[in-house]
Write a structure and sequence with these properties.
The protein has about 210 residues and is mostly helical. It is about 70% helix and about 0% strand. It has a domain at about 65-214. It comes from Chryseolinea soli. Keywords: Membrane, Signal, Transmembrane, Transmembrane helix. This is DUF2231 domain-containing protein.
């Protein structure tokens, strides 16, 4: 019964987290940081080209219509890593091997999603301001921390399952690592939202290099 309750809570978390993340970054156009006029002019043309390429009568876009798949993939990483951290904290009380295996699966998918979002599907930028470059550096730094700590957490989880047999002290160490990874992915998401909603990088391909649509 307790195991089912934990799984239901994890499902609710996975549904609610993306919604809360988007609600926390509502900004007006007046809040956007203005770049120099040459950059604005250059990206206006690119923005227009992208808009023309889309079929205005088509409601559901194809994957190829997006300038980059990074936002679609990275949300899996954000949700799954945070859910894994919450489940690990709960399992410190329950000490259920079944839940430990579920956490391992969730964490594996989350780390893979974070890796793909940061490596294979990371868009290249051009013509952005110095301030935006600084924000991008922070975003990439915390994304790297997320991946590195996530991989360490996953390895510790595997060692715990096969060698320590879900000992509470070992699970506590993993929980701390997962909390750190969760904080890192939250910070990476914060800077990512700042890049999109304040710096205007990404919507309809603005400031993204052509040829990097993956």
């Amino acid at each position: 019964m307790k195991t089912r309750l934990v799984l239901v809570m994890a499902l609710l978390l996975s549904i609610s987290m993306p919604t809360e993340a988007h609600q926390g970054h509502k900004n007006n156009a007046q809040d956007s940081i203005v770049t120099n006029p040459e950059q604005v002019h250059g990206d206006t043309a690119h923005h227009h080209d992208g808009a023309v390429a889309n079929n205005p009568s088509k409601v559901t876009a194809d994957l190829g219509d997006f300038p980059t798949l990074h936002p679609l993939i990275v949300h899996f990483a954000i949700v799954l890593i945070m859910v894994a951290a919450v489940l690990q904290l709960l399992n410190l009380i329950l000490i259920k091997k079944e839940i430990a295996w579920i956490i391992t699966g969730i964490l594996l998918i989350g780390v893979l999603a974070a890796w793909m979002a940061g490596r294979n599907f990371h868009p290249h930028t051009h013509g952005i301001s110095d301030h935006a470059k600084s924000v991008l550096e922070q975003h990439d730094t915390w994304a790297d921390w997320t991946i590195n700590i996530g991989v360490i957490s996953l390895l510790l989880q595997v060692v715990n399952l096969f060698f320590f047999k879900t000992k509470r002290w070992a699970m506590a160490v993993i929980a701390m690592a997962l909390v750190l990874s969760g904080c890192s992915v939250a910070l990476a998401g914060h800077y990512g939202a700042q890049l999109v909603h304040l710096e205007g990088i990404g919507p309809q391909g603005k400031y993204l290099e052509k040829g990097h649509h993956h």
